């Protein structure tokens, strides 16, 4: 293979690798769930395309980083905590919260 063809092939592979390593492409967006202890209130989860996001409840907002890994969504909280959730085909994410049980986030809007 000529040098030009090889470098184009390497660039194509690098591009595919970079796209494959991005956080889950279909996951970014806004999700809503009822708080386990207060069903009348909502918890908002925002996943931005670049792997950043936030979790908010009431007047509190917690920044986070997120990644899609092995069929799960990992939420890395600023204080060092990690929550793992499972996205499903209905555009929802199910998280298990220690001490509360499962909480189901339904997609409420497109990417931010």
N-to-C order of helices and strands? HEEEEEEEE
Largest sheet: 8 strands, antiparallel, barrel
Count of DSSP helices? 1
Order of strands in the sheet with most strands: 1-2-3-4-5-6-7-8
Q: Over the alpha carbons, how many angstroms does the gyration radius reach? A: 18 Å
Approximate shape: globular
State the share of residues found in helices, binned by percent.
10-25%
What does the model show?
The structure is a single chain. The N terminus is likely disordered. A hairpin with a 4-residue loop joins strand 6 and strand 7. The protein is globular, with a radius of gyration of 18 Å. The chain is of the alpha+beta class and 112 residues long.
Short précis:
This protein is an alpha+beta fold. It contains 1 helix and 8 strands.
Keywords:
54% strand, eight-stranded antiparallel β-barrel, globular, alpha+beta, 112 residues
């Amino acid at each position: 293979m000529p040098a030009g063809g090889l470098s184009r092939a390497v660039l194509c592979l690098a591009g595919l690798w970079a796209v494959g390593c991005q956080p889950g492409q279909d996951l970014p967006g806004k999700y809503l769930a009822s708080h386990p202890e207060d069903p009348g209130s909502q918890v908002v989860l925002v996943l931005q395309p670049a792997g950043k996001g936030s979790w908010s409840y009431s007047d509190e907002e917690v920044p986070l980083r997120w990644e899609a890994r092995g069929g799960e969504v990992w939420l890395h909280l600023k204080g060092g905590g990690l929550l793992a959730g499972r996205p499903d085909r209905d555009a929802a994410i199910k998280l298990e919260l220690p001490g509360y049980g499962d909480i189901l986030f339904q997609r409420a809007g497109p990417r931010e």
